[in-house]
Amino acid sequence: MRALVFERNLARFAAARLVSSLGSGRAAGIGPLRLADCDPPELPGPGWHPVRPLLSGICGSDLTTLNGRSSRYFEDLVSFPFVPGHEVVGTVEALATSAEGAVLDPGTRVVLEPVLGCAARGIDPPCEACAAGHTGDCEHVAHGHLRPGLQTGFCADTGGGWSAAGLVAHESQLHAVPHSLSDEDAVTVEPVACAVHAVLHAGLRESEMVAVIGAGTVGLTLTGALAHLAGTGRCPEPSALLVAARHPHQQQVATELGATSALPTRQLARLVRRRSRSLAVGSPSQGSRQLTGGADLVFDCVGSAESLQEALAIVRPRGRVVLVGMPGRVHLDLASLWHREVSLIGAYAYGSERVPGAPAPVRTFDLAMEVAGALRTGRLVSATYPLERFEEALAHAGAAGRRGAVKIAFDLRRDRTPAKGSPS
Amino acid sequence: MSPRPGFVLEVDRSTPPTLFWNGEQFALERLPEGSRVVYAPEPVDAMADPVSAIRHALTHPLGDSEPLPALLRPGMRLTICFDDVSLPLPPMQAPDVRQMVIEEVLDMAAAAGVDDVVLVAALALHRRMTEPELRHALGNRVYEAFAPHGLLTQHDAEDPANLVHLGQTEQGEDVEINKRAATSDLVVYVNINLVAMDGGHKSVATGLASYRSLRHHHNPQTMRHSRSFMDAPASELHTANWRMGRLIAASGVKVFQIETTLNNDTFPDSFAFLQKREWEWSLRDRATYAASSAALARTPSPMARRIFHSIRSPHALSSVQAGEVEAVHEVTTANVWAQQGVEVNGQTDILTMGLPYICPYNVDSIMNPILVACLGLGYFFNLYRGKPLVREGGVLILRHPTPWDFHPGHHPSYIDFFEQVLAETVDPVVMHKQFEESFATDPWYIHLYRTAHAYHGVHPFYMWYWCAHALEHLGRVIVVGGDPKAVRRLGFSPASTMADALEIAGDVVGTSPSLTHLHAPPILMADVR
Q1: B positions 390-419 inside 8 Å of A (CB)
Q2: Which SS3 state, helix, strand or coil, does residue B238 take?
Q3: pLDDT digits (tens, 9 = 90+) for B483-496
Q4: Is 0.90 exceeded by the ipTM?
Q5: Fold held by A2-190+363-411
Q6: Global pTM value
């Protein structure tokens, strides 16, 4: 069975890095990714189950890795060769159990919670983070009976979603998909879960002004998640949700998902200034950039030096900047962060969340499943490709914004019988 | 030989193409046969001895005013206010008429022993003038005598310590004006009445007012019922200003009004063709047109802007009158109409106009899309008395590049208005309710208005309100040659050529519409019968 395999090959890394400067995703043909015939991975131990992907998304972090531009921080947190793909909706191939303890008949549709925490790694007792339900913060992503890999899709032992051969998943990673969700909705549940976690991790307070920089999948799902959670009383209602979106289609979707205003990136600072009634430092003729006040909370859903600098320019003193988009090594002037006592907060993955009114922590994926269904986030899936056309798919994903797209995914449903739980 | 009056040409087969202004460029358009072209009158004669004429006006006032020297005495507080950089257009060649008038006033004040004299630029909510602009308006001698001592000031509509609330009119309108003026023994206001709208009670009631006061007449309701701004008896804007002016007078503020008119000798010899009728162009005019058009087409916009904004108009003083506000203004208005009035029989289905590079609010600046709208729909559309040139439900076709471009120093709130307000609504009433106050009270805009050279935060709203009557009256507005995105943001239709525009207009006015072209500038006012 065919799968896309990412191998450690320094020459190809270097080539990918070089070519990707012409455009994200353009290096797929010469980089360390290749289409290969693979067997399904072996089950690492009890509690593991084979899963056959139906759809598997291409994430920004995948592109960064394929472009040879991911941080060296991750070098010891992945193992080679690995099959990428951590945004997965698939079917269980045999009788299985879900993370919630439900029995899953063969063929049942599931989404994968890709974090490989202590439970998946057979580590007992679990680390403090996993014990508290914050599996995204697991201390053991490079330990246990699995080779290193912070998630499925970066671990040599589990396989990944970009594979017709399938992958293996621990029962702690499996969530049954309700009938009401299409495959497209379901494949967005993982990024929606990231967004839900970022929103709930940010400590939003009532009537705060929120700015979101970036309107790719991360920014749009965050916008939708925040609007939905606020609308259903699971987080405070912001006074405004302002989204910087470079492309017109992104602006339209952001507005549909609940943004108060969605506007080109260069306009965000002016809108934040006006709504916060703050001043700016310097003369407008000189391109004054730093606001004296600003947004209470800024989500940086890009993770570049430019987006972070913009976030620091528009956040109020003692405000918070939440880094949701995956950054690498960036060159940044942090004087304003120091001077204005701004908090820079990371938001990665998911686990469980505390929400108002709920007696116990709620799984992030449960909330994400609800958000995906309510907002029909499957609409963000702009195009799907077979694995054989991976070069086109990755080039499309790398230029998604410019090409009017949001999420690109691999479609592995060919030659399969309808899955149990698929909408008729 | 007396100057020729205005003229309405009927286009026939032998008519040469008609000149259209196109921002910092020009274009020649062949209009359909049967179209009318309205030309301005030729410049009236300049006053042979302007200084003597000014002196005569000051000593022979109109209305129940005493001559200026009789109003001056030692120990009094004298405040001399003058129109700002928005007048005249283009800026006139030195000496500016304000300089000539103020020098005479100061000579009389000095002769009477008045030593408490302050000059105030009557900015209202316009941007502060720069030092070169003040020097140009007042002359170096006046500037050097007053500015270093802090006696040359610019009205600050956001300085509560220097504003006085004089009361409310019978309509409940707040009248709040410049404190120095309000507490002076005499206010001398020096006007340049470029169009019939200028002057009268509007000088003090608007030029020296605060936002609290201005909002009573600078709003969609008033603007929609000012038909037109050039016809004071039919202008709600003027009615409100007259109410306020009379309250100011009743409050004990004595105003000695000086109004001046200029002839419409608008462009220097190097651009003489711009104020000629096309069939009278000489070989040299045609060559100048061809050469300048070709050169401008290759000139980057900022450079073309610098070239045009360096033009100094040869405008010459054509009349000056002084004394009591209303008596003075009646004579001034008659003089303005004598220079600019053109009788036009009947309205038209389509009105075309080429918009130039300048309007009152972009001197040395960029004609941004909001100003394009304001110049076309606010100013040129309103250059009428009686009825608008274009019928109700008719089409207005503008020619202007309409770039999505703003001067960040002069027009910071315009940028936000364009990006944030017009993105949501082009309805003056809706934006008045939903957005005006937040812009008007925005501390950053206020800071820039007071300390830099920015128009007040509410100013773009006022520009849009100027369009309110036209927006209600017209069936469609089409902009030829404009940036399509910017044009659409204004709520107008873009067209790449005049032929396309006429085809688009056909959807509204049918296939055989009448068409009239307003050949301005030089400025003309249509007396539509």
Answers
A1: 407-409, 412, 415-416, 419
A2: helix
A3: 999 999 999 999 99
A4: no
A5: Quinone Oxidoreductase; Chain A, domain 1 (3.90.180)
A6: 0.89
